[in-house]
Amino acid sequence: MNTGELTELGQQLRVDSVRAAAAAGSGHPTSSMSAADLMAVLFAHHFRYDFARPDHPANDRFVLSKGHASPLMYATYKAVGAIDDEELLTFRKSGSRLEGHPTPRQLPWIETATGSLGQGLPVGVGIALAGKRLEHAEYRVWVLCGDSELAEGSVWEAAEHAAYEHLDNLTVIVDVNRLGQRGPTRHGHDLDAYARRFQAFGWHTVEVDGHDVDAVDRAYGEADSTKGQPTAILARTLKGKGVAAVQDREGLHGKPLPEAEEAVAELGGPRDLHVRVRQPSAAGSPPARAAGHLELPRWDKGEEVATRNAFGEALAALGTARGDVVALDGEVGDSTRAEFFAKAHPERYVECYIAEQQMVATAVGVAARGWTPYASTFAAFLTRAHDFVRMASISGSGLALVGSHAGVAIGQDGPSQMGLEDLAMMRSVHGSTVLYPCDANQTARLVAAMADLDGIRYLRTSRGESPVLYGPDEDFPVGGSKVLRSSDHDRFTLVAAGVTVPEALAAADALEGEGIAVRVIDLYSVKPVDRETLRAAAEETGCLVTVEDHRPEGGLGDAVLDAFADGRPVPRLVRLAVRNMPGSASPDEQLHAAGIDAESIAAAGRLLVGEAIVS
Amino acid sequence: MNTGELTELGQQLRVDSVRAAAAAGSGHPTSSMSAADLMAVLFAHHFRYDFARPDHPANDRFVLSKGHASPLMYATYKAVGAIDDEELLTFRKSGSRLEGHPTPRQLPWIETATGSLGQGLPVGVGIALAGKRLEHAEYRVWVLCGDSELAEGSVWEAAEHAAYEHLDNLTVIVDVNRLGQRGPTRHGHDLDAYARRFQAFGWHTVEVDGHDVDAVDRAYGEADSTKGQPTAILARTLKGKGVAAVQDREGLHGKPLPEAEEAVAELGGPRDLHVRVRQPSAAGSPPARAAGHLELPRWDKGEEVATRNAFGEALAALGTARGDVVALDGEVGDSTRAEFFAKAHPERYVECYIAEQQMVATAVGVAARGWTPYASTFAAFLTRAHDFVRMASISGSGLALVGSHAGVAIGQDGPSQMGLEDLAMMRSVHGSTVLYPCDANQTARLVAAMADLDGIRYLRTSRGESPVLYGPDEDFPVGGSKVLRSSDHDRFTLVAAGVTVPEALAAADALEGEGIAVRVIDLYSVKPVDRETLRAAAEETGCLVTVEDHRPEGGLGDAVLDAFADGRPVPRLVRLAVRNMPGSASPDEQLHAAGIDAESIAAAGRLLVGEAIVS
């Protein structure tokens, strides 16, 4: 396309953005209009993609980090022939594929859900990393960001990561329209301010008038030919460009244009330009990912092994059996034991340093390319990436997340290092699986099982050693549990997981010595829970006592209720959990202070069978 | 102190760090040793503080962002006479004030809990902002960071915020010892790499040999005299400095020295130097914070008002009555309605732009200085700051957090913008209060009540308009609820909050028309819950049906169980919550698709009284 055609295409994208938002009665046309020329030039001249074959391994990848500019994305899909005008006007309506913020659920050309700002570039870094380091593929990754979202620290985690990994297949285009939602951004149209920051982080930068299609074209070419570092294109644009009533004006974020028909006329009216997108450069084939026989590590009953160690060993074994497994670390691989994988498979180990948001975003990116990522850090620090996990679930992303150093059982390091809210966080994620093993063989089996699940899968590991309770050939289906003690005269049921399993068993031993029979369930699958076993325990023993190294809210105690939330009779419930604010102390002292060690459990049990109410 | 004395003091801090970790059998002596000279010079020559009066308004403030170097902090406290040697050796023991990572719970000289890296500088920015902008005070804020933690994006949110606010009362000292936990950092001893980044964000920088006490002294002086911008001191240091067996060596992070006695001898043996810390520069008085009569906004029953609007108006009124209230925004104040406060009290409104971690950290910082912060953004985006909220609860920080745009009820914008996990997140925070009002008058009362609570207080608001159900003089005690419908022949109880309250009332109307009497409870206080009312409803109606615009995990459905977790009989339970993944649709369509609108509630009720099991 020549200059005039590109300019016309930009106007068409504006017109269609305005029309889509007008039809919806909501949406972000002004944020679309600023970036319309940037998109026109990208899709007409540079982006290589087979829209008939979105899974083509050599396709370039595009991420709309400023997800609210979805009208522009959909207008572009219309211009390239992927959707028609009728569908464009279903924008934001119930049942439409064209959601308010893009998601890949129904649109195969979307790489990742966006709409929480500052996440598109981090995920783009993950995709580019997969292309460059894992696949050695030719594709390029293009990310369109807003200027406001550069205030998010996650953008700078991404900038650091991309430059460190020399991702010259990555280009970020920043639509510097100077206006955020509430008003002007910190830096307005000061392109240098943004360029200085990207340069300091090791990027090549280009500053450009984002409405000069030839200049934009040259900038993309410069990005294409820059080697050894990623490129940031800082484009000066005007929000609402092309319609005087809204152009460069405050207070118009996220609103359809007041006079849409007049605006369309001012933009020169509807057009029907069609863009022939460049085809991917190579035939391309999906990367070969050798798969072999899985030989999980095995431990004998009675050995003392930390579940974090079992995780590390199992992950390394899984990596040997499956070429699609990638491990990501937040600079604590020696503690989480992800380092065992690093030693065995350094080419599939990604050190993300202390940047948990970027770690999860990288996982989302490599998962989007078909890899199976396991991202691990301390359970406590996964809270740092909560919003990324939330958005990953909207993407339908397949991630294995592993949090170590769970609970007060870590001991002396104190509360800042203790995962005490992680089960609540992970259970509330849509479609998630939450696993909490108590011994080494169980851990190894669950680590392997995670690889074949959908959605967000979370495994919680512990720092200290614990006895191996199960043989290496025992099965642990997701959604199952293990009844470790049972009789036909159990007075109540202890429901435990992880470090509280041995404590519950010891408490049951003590109570049995006093003539009080107690059932013990190892609820290693916290979500989904084993409804049948819990319901049987409720019917047969009348009372469930949950014991967890976690806050009382959102963890094991709440999870057992999933078995009784349908209106059926509920058993009596007692919840033992961490209600204090721990300080520093030994692991045993911590469990005791929290009231979740064997002695505390036994004491609660005695009160219970004495018919006293435990408070 | 002269050069020799400062050097000796540095050695003493090393010796005491080694001794403390040796006595504990754990801890981070090598990370303490790298920064010992930096601390020696700071506390001997520059830091102004009255240790007998930690609340002195003119005291400088120090934040140990690399919280694992706590032995160094405590060794410094010994050197200044705040603790004695006997207490130093209680480090990390049960009951000791000297925890593995510093917290302010028992040590009045600590400003904020640290140990989750990348949080100290953000909180320091908040304290410096309070000093400069709210208090116009003379004190300086000094933050000691590790180099590894500069990978956290939160550090760059802080860097951006500090430079934008011209916080020349803030100095960050980066202990560039080149070694993280697992191995070398990305940039090793490349001080320029860090300096370039800080400069690009608008900071003054100084590069220095962190073991040359005179050079460090000059660097601090330069920071002191730099006007208009914050200063970053990049100090080249060696981890484990002074002990050949550990100095600058990998694999020794977080471990006591193998031969502590020999190490102490190599460092020249114990010393007993005492530092006279400079006194604060002025007598200083706490800032005057005028308090007047609170005139909350009032609405008439039947008006249609969005609770987010009521929040904004009530907060503005609260700000008029109380001079200690500060509002913080994540660049969405026009949506959350925090902007109403901005218009009334611009001097106490802090725009944090799209940087939720920094928004919460700023709140922690200003709260540490005695202010009462209200930080608000979309409920969904508060997940971005989860780790900061978690750490704030360890600090015992008093924060009001407000999340708007809760649930599927926002409509067309889609799931990325919907707070659907926020109740789970906030309930699991230790000592938190969680409020979810359904009408304008209730919102206003609860906004005011939040100011006087302890710990983390969370209020959830809604985007759309809803009917005013309560008169303006109604009381809404925290921990209470409202029984909106009740009879002596109720077949079950609907427990609702926020947007589901009008839906529950409409469902109850419909069912009443069919001869089915239903109790309705407005559970506006989600944590703590009103145990008495829930228990009475359970006894009298036998079944609780919770209805919430939130994921089934961790929200209202789990909250009601708090009333029955002590072993007492539990009622039958049915949980209506958002189990689907929403797309774009109108608010009404969204509520219906999620099965939480009046029609769905009534349908569930019919099944229930028909004795059918609802699945």
Task: Give the helices and strands, then pairings.
Two copies of one chain form a homodimer.
Chain A lengths: L2 H22 L4 H6 L1 H11 L14 E4 L5 H10 L5 H4 L31 H15 L6 E6 L6 H12 L5 E7 L14 H10 L3 E6 L3 H13 L5 E6 L23 H7 L37 E3 H15 L3 E5 L3 H4 L2 H6 L4 E3 L4 H13 L3 E7 H4 L3 H10 L3 E6 L17 H6 L5 E3 L4 H11 L5 E5 L4 E3 L14 E4 L6 E5 L3 H14 L4 E5 L2 E3 L3 H11 L1 E5 L8 H4 L12 E5 L10 H8 L3 H12 L6
Helix pairs in contact in A: 1-3, 1-4, 1-10, 3-9, 6-7, 6-14, 11-18, 14-16, 19-23
Total DSSP helices of chain A: 23
CATH class division of the largest domain in chain A: Alpha Beta
Chain pair forming the biggest interface: A-B, 118 and 116 residues
Question: What is the overall silhouette of chain A?
Answer: elongated
Model regions low in confidence, pLDDT < 50 over at least 5 residues of chain A = 611-615
Average pLDDT over all residues of chain A: 96
The quaternary state of the protein chains shown equals homodimer
